[in-house]
Amino acid sequence: MPNYLTPGVYVEEVASGARPIQAVGTSTAGFVGVAPNPSVRAHEPVAINSWQQFMRIFGAGTHKAHTTCLAQAVYGFFLNGGGRCYVVNCQDETQLTGDRKGLGVLESIDEVAIVAAPGFVSPAAYDAVLSHCELMEDRVAILDGPATAAAINDLTKVAAARMQVEKSDDGEKQAQTGKGAAGLRPRNSDAGYGAVYFPWIVGRDPLNSRSLIRMPPSGHLAGIYARSDATRGVHKAPANEVVRGALNVSYRVTRHEQAELNPQGVNCIRFFPREGIRVWGARTLAPAASEWRYINVRRLFNMVKESIAQSTRWVVFEPNDQDLWKAITRDVSAFLTLLWRQGALFGSTPQEAFFVQCDAETNPPEVRDAGQVVTRIGLAPVKPAEFVIFQIGQGVGGTETEVQQ
Known about the structure:
Helix content: 25-40%
Radius of gyration: 25 Å
Number of helices: 13
Structural class: alpha/beta
Shape: globular
Pfam families: Phage_sheath_1, Phage_sheath_1C
Family: Belongs to the myoviridae tail sheath protein family.
CATH topology of the largest domain: Rossmann fold
Protein name: Phage tail sheath protein, putative
InterPro entries: Phage_sheath_subtilisin, Tail_sheath_C, Tail_sheath_structural
CATH class of the largest domain: Alpha Beta
Largest sheet: 8 strands, mixed
Distance between the termini: 60 Å
Strand order of the largest sheet: 2-3-1-4-5-6-10-11
């Protein structure tokens, strides 16, 4: 309390009420690849807000720029609803995985929530992008499946092939030479920090509209992620969405082929006669029995973790007592209640959707003596209705229909 020495009336501003937790952005992408002009701003994260800006920067200095997978991905990103991305211009796969050259320069950009290396489909590239996202724990990887349509025969057998390669003494050699199917599907990410999509799409070359080319889908998918986040929220699975700019697919996956690919975490881009070309999968590279098998669940938890971490920095060095515990519980509960009202959490009441515990049980004397304050949070995320089943039976009085989701 201040010292009052002179008689009079004093008016003070007293901080009270909750400190609102704001949700962080989830749609900023980071692309690493070869630009049309490979010599421009190499190994530097460049913020890009439009396709025109990308061409002004990375297409400059070339009389007639040649298309690249990176250019196709950035074009597809903005075409499908993306608003902001970072581009890192690197020359080859060695620089992609090099320290402070490719993916490494994105580590300092907290804004990035989606990472892709368009066109890089080798086991080393897959592992590099996944390892980057697993290290950062605040972003997910979108990986391109194999470029050739013939790979579908190996992809449908990928589980058995990967097991054989892992048991083989020269498994590394097989993966590098492409003799096995191990390189066709990226490795597992147990915490679900990545998703892979197959096949590549066919569309107009963004640098030559008269030419139809085969393009990696990762950039278009990153735009779809951003579009779904803006229209529905990060909790909505970015699937059953139209791929803008896709005029065809390099391979038309059948229903039976997807029945083998989907359990292995390979998301298919399907052509439907009436609905057009759509994203028809929302799985991560986590095991099928994992709680992280859906990409929207992984991205929702990424957003919640990052939002709470950024908005509760005021807690640091505060007195670790009951007042602080109540303030933390109040602020986090208010944030999660808002998510529940938006449909991101499952439950008819907030109590069913989440819990927040910060009290003497989570903060005993030994924890407080260590300078720590521990808050336990539990969430019940909404998961996609991946399989919609209509059970139809004929009754005595007519037809009975039961709908299950």
